[in-house]
Amino acid sequence: MFRTMRPHELHIPAWFSASELQPHAARFVRYILQWGYSKGTLHKYRNAAAHFAHWMTGNDIACSKLDEVEADLAMKERTLKSLRPPKVKTSRFRPSDRLIQFLSAL
Q1: SS3 sequence, the chain?
Q2: Is the pTM higher than 0.70?
């Protein structure tokens, strides 16, 4: 596009070329640029579109068959896979000595 692809982006052209969305990739980039988005934003949008194209190809979903239910289900599945328990160690509340003295005096 405008800069050398970073190592984590090298799969982007392959994902588009294997997808039904490949003929539309260049037009999508032009559209984003026409609206005045920065190149950094353009690359993020392009990468997101490539991920979407890869997901469609991997799930054998044709553009004509794609609907909101399929996309919604895929987003939920991806989100559920990424959920992790919090890294917070829960501990029991221990009141301060002053609070215990106050409550005892009541």
Answers
A1: CCCCCCHHHCCHHHHHHCCCCHHHHHHHHHHHHHCCCCHHHHHHHHHHHHHHHHHHHHCCCCHHHCCHHHHHHHHHHHHHHHCCCCCCCCCCCCCCHHHHHHHHHC
A2: no
